[in-house]
TrEMBL record:
Cellular component GO terms held in the UniProt record: vacuolar membrane
Topological category with respect to the lipid bilayer: Multi-pass membrane protein
Keywords recorded for this protein, A-Z: ATP-binding, Membrane, Nucleotide-binding, Repeat, Transmembrane, Transmembrane helix, Transport
Protein name, as recorded: ABC transmembrane type-1 domain-containing protein
Ranges of biased composition (kind: Polar residues): 584-593
GO terms assigned for molecular function: ABC-type transporter activity; ATP binding; ATP hydrolysis activity
Transmembrane segments annotated in the record for this chain: 83-104, 124-147, 191-215, 221-242, 306-328, 668-690, 702-724, 744-777, 857-888
Every ABC transmembrane type-1 domain range: 106-365, 636-900
Pfam families in the record: ABC_membrane, ABC_tran
SUPFAM superfamilies: ABC transporter transmembrane region, P-loop containing nucleoside triphosphate hydrolases
InterPro entries in alphabetical order: AAA+_ATPase (IPR003593), ABC1_TM_dom (IPR011527), ABC1_TM_sf (IPR036640), ABC_transporter-like_ATP-bd (IPR003439), ABC_transporter-like_CS (IPR017871), ABC_transporter_C-like (IPR050173), ABCC_6TM_D1 (IPR044746), ABCC_6TM_D2 (IPR044726)
Amino acid sequence: MSSQPPAIIDRQPWLHRVLLLWLDPLFRLGATRPLVDSDIWHLGAQDTAVRLSRRFARHWGTAHDRRPSSLVRAVCRTFAREMTVVAALSVAYSLLVQYQPPLIHLLMTVVTRSDDTIDDTSGYWYAALLAVVSLVSVTILDSSFFVTAQLATNVKTVVMDLVLSQSLHCPDAATSSGDVITMVAVDSTRLFVGFVALPWLVVPVVTLPLLYTAIGSMMGWQVGVAGGLTLLVVMAGGYYFAHAAGNLRHDLMAAQAARVKATDELLAGIRVVKMYGWEASLENRVTSLRDAELALQHTYQFGSELNAIGLLVAPTLSLMACVVVYVVGLGHALTPTVAFTAMAYVNIARLPCNLFAFAVMRVTEAVTSAHRIETFIRSVLKAILGELELVAGHMEATTTRVAYASQEPWLQQTTIRSNITFHSDNANISDHYATVLSACQLLPDLASFSQGDCTVLGDRGVNLSGGQRARVALARAMYRQDADLVLLDDPLSALDSHVAKTVFEQGIRGVLAEKSVILVLNSHYHLLPFADTIVVMEGGRVVRQGSFATMQQHLTSLSYPQTSKTCPPPTTLADQLLPLASPNPTSTSSHVRTANPLKTRPPVDESSPLLVVAPTNDVALDTYVAYFDASGWHGISVMAGVGGMYLLSQGVVVAADAALTSVTSLCLYVPLAIAAMLLLFTRGICALLLNLACAKTLHRQLLHAVVSAPVPTFFDVTPLGRILHRFTSDLFDVDSRMPTSAVYLLQCQFQVLGIAVVCGAALPCSIVFCAPLVLLVTRIYTRFSHTSPALTRLAAAHRAPFVAFATETLRGLSTIRAFDQTEHFETNGRRLLDKAQSYLLVQFLASRWLQMRMDGLSAGMVAAVAFCCVWSRASVGVVGAGLALTYVTQLSGFLSRAVMGHAEVAEHMTSVERMVEYIGIKSEGAKSEGPVGGSRSTTALAEWPSRGAVTFANYSMRYRAGLELSLKHVSLSVRAGEKVGICGRTGGGKSSLLAALFRTVEAASGRIMIDGVDIATVDLAILRSRLTIIPQDPVVFSGSVRFNLDPTLTTDDAALWHVLRQVHLADVVGLDYDVAEHGANLSGGQRQLLCIARALLRKSKVVVLDEATANIDGDTDRLIQDTLRANFDHDNVTKLVIAHRVHTILDSDRILVLQDGSVVEFDTPAALLAIENGVFNALAAHAGAALP
């Protein structure tokens, strides 16, 4: 249950809602302590995903069959009411702000007249009216932003929910997880930002025509036309460039999706990548995609910055055109009153022009993202219609209730209990649940976990062994009591013969005795006599079917023993079933073991099992320095240089405005204005290049740090979704949002500085009001700055679970649909989405809270300067008053945006902070005991290993500090060229032995030597390049077969074709055959064959086969075994073979038996079989295996 308090917005009075007074307690709280989950409110009922999806469906249902823009149209129709309110408020602001220049003109008139000709009272009335107009106009505009915040959040919710719901109905191979992740994490954010920018599409359209109409009425229609046309040309050019950039954005997003997909594959297969020593090659692959992305990013950002700068200087060009036509064309004298009134009109255009560029860019990006999502949805619909088309015959099913266990187990990042019950009501554990655990032989495993079945699994169940994952997935299929048909796709292949036999007898023939079961077998053919019907398939066709008695003579090619019709039940589990005898699992008795595998306490929060949020509120200065250090220059020097350039350019801008007071100053104004525009251009481009350089370096450092991170202390405890979040949303902040926010922040900050200097110099008495203004700004911003980073972190922390959920869901689509859990996953996804969006909305409204208060203070400063002008009109002078008034009326636009810009940069810096945190992860192998760097010289190891003798000397290992030893004082010697079979019950330590050999986990004590060299003294890259493993779970990458065989791309084609022929794939695929993501267009056996081909290519002296043929059918298994013997069964290759099927290691020279992390038997197969009551003897007997 969520710890968030209920929604609060809907219960607030209208004025409190608009002025965001309901957020005041949150900021007071944030100033005293770090915010936590329970401080943030739920969304209002009308803003939840389920309500919004229903609302959207009414319009989407009639729009999605039309032209590709239908998604945009459907969204606009869904939220037409909110968009109308935003437009109305924007128009009201545009109309009201037009009164500022006439009031400034009246005040200038008061200042220019002598004391005897006018009463000060009228001047004060003008000043009061100017203050009121300023306050009311910005309040209306800020109110539109409040509506926009809810609108943009709701649009993002609709889009993310739409992508997830469509993904749940998507065939497994119909889309790329990289594309979906990009749409969820990036495209939805672009739609959010696009709708946030909507007011700034409306305001310029209304404001600018009115402004130049007023200028024309004051200075002559020719002047208004000249100024308006100049601005129109620049803005038209800006619109053209923005549209072109939007088209480029499509290519950029495709490049981003390709990089994300490559990164996802790299992280998903990180264990195999490390053991093959391919980190550099896969890193280079991602980096090359990143370079292509950055090339597009550079072009896009450069064009965007040119467009933004053009619109920034557009008002200056427009004012220049107005003055030139007025003075030169019409021959009028330029008085200070006319000059500054014209400047006041043009200054109103500055903010709309600046933000018009932002709005056009963001709306264009939003439309492009909407088209991408539209294309995805259409592709899903087509894929669903074309999924497994029936080309001949007919197919009937008399049931719709199915349970399913896939060949590759799919597990969620939740408790073991929830993985088995699969979202059924598990508040009270039933007898059936206990029976399933017993049948799947899970009780001993659960007893070894401190949290029992409440243990939270890591990504893909990484904290379980392969056999444990398979049995949990099988237990899920058995637990579904209402299933009429149970589909089991070779779930026993990852189990040793003893466990497989017991699971088959107690589970498939016991728990599922009353069910229709379709069991696919690629091994364990000794179980065939127990089948009612046997179907033999070959090449996708049924070649034979019938009972075992009628089929026996045709099954001679399969390896199965003649066994009795019953499997002896294990006796060792009787005492473990005692805790389950009572229907009430919470009851205890004296004979119940302390380590009860079924925990009686409620499970931990499953929505975010590994959620970690930084406890502090502030972004450290070190983060800013680290960011600028990434540019290649010292961070402090970079900040000083950029600040100096902006200070110089702003000084020139002020000088140019001050020169515009008379006809004689016109010759000075024009060159100063041109110089100011050139400096504005230069500073913007420099800041942009700096940001892009920092983004490139940060990604490179982040990727290298993550790829080099240790498996047990990083990948085993960090969800893949959270890691991907660093490479998607966080990197998007650094790539796209940081440059825009940083440049805009600098512009606004120095504009505010210019306003302060001008007002202070022209009206010294206004300094009296500046002091309290600064104090209030500081106080408000301090409170905001203490709270905003915490809100950003909370929002980011709750976005990651949704991304992880979407990624995880895509991997388990077949299981989800088989269990008819699509609706539940939609509901669960919406729950995570609502939680994430509640934080996003509060985070965004917090910025609006700050803006509203800054705008109110700015209106107060306008009143102060206006009153000072009237009060000191005798001494201030018309030029000083004109500059002060025209500048201070811009304060409401720039002060709030300067402070908000600082907050936005701080918000983006939290993304940098998270990236820097990952960059600081200690690399694996850092504790090696050898020379500097933990490696011997490369020259000394050039021919190592030459023989392949492996020795474990009193070796112990634990995965992480505080955990029990996984290997305990292991001592053994494997002779060079020897073939050693490794077996043992699930959890015995087989995988730990391999982790120790490849140093994915460092030693707790003891050492491992290969040819007399302590592997702890060998550089990891060298060590892993000299060893070869064929993993239990085949890992392939999208791309060519050539790349999958040799990612280093250093092997010639002849050698590649040779290994393909050895594994019998040469007639199936070519070197340029394009492997789909996760090998979706290859069968499980073909993927494993490809992995075996890699091993053959490396020609290592030490080869490890980690249950390498567990997922391959019998015929292919025999071919592979023959291939392995032909290539590896000679004296110069040492082979360590792990297999659940005992008969596959009976031809080994010696067999190693592990139990509880210790060596219990190690001798020849004959010697071990001769040991009465021996562990291996028992395993072989259960498997029906005997020496040939």
